[in-house]
Amino acid sequence: MGVWRGLAGMCICVDCRWVDRCQAYHAVERQHAVPHLCAHPDIQPDQPRIHVQVLDLPDGAVGVEWDVRACASFLVDPGRWQRLRPGEPLPV
Ligand code: SF4
Predict the structure, then answer these.
(1) 60 C-alpha vs ligand 1 centroid, how far in Å?
(2) pLDDT for the residue 91
(3) What is the rounded average pLDDT of the residues 74-88?
(4) Of the residues 7, 57, 59, 67, which has the maximum number of CB atoms within 10 A of its CB?
């Protein structure tokens, strides 16, 4: 199976069937300090490619952005994250 690649600047996990069971996405949530979709994810994805970007923030602060940009385990399920968190803004 090939590695699915998303658009530049987008985390593909928000449209993935496994987002609430995935150990890689769980790590991304931890890096972003956001609530986990699942406390104990049981799926270890194949070849997730995590893009790490250092951002300049106001007042000289520095932020780090983590996004999964490609993954061989990706299974398309459009809007899955949003259905799990209705009404909340999509993580970017
Ligand atoms: S795309 Fe890969 S890393 Fe992201 S939720 Fe799906 S299986 Fe996990």
Answers:
(1) 33
(2) 78
(3) 96
(4) 67
Which atom of ligand 1 is nearest the CA belonging to 48? Answer: 3
DSSP E strands in the chain: the ranges are: 4-5, 49-56, 62-71
Percentage with pLDDT > 90 across the chain: 60
pLDDT in tens, 9-42: 678 999 999 999 999 999 999 988 889 999 999 9
Give the pTM.
Answer: 0.85
Burial of 17 (0-12, 13-18, 19+ CB in 10 A): middle
Instruction: Give me ligand 1 centre to Cα 56, in Å.
Output: 27
Tell me, using a 6 A CB cutoff, whether residue 28 lines ligand 1: no
Measured from the CB, is residue 81 less than 6 Å from ligand 1?
no
Write the single-letter amino acid at 73: S
Please report, as a single letter, which amino acid is at residue 82.
Q
The angle at the Cα of 23, spanning 9 to 78, to the nearest 5 degrees, equals: 50
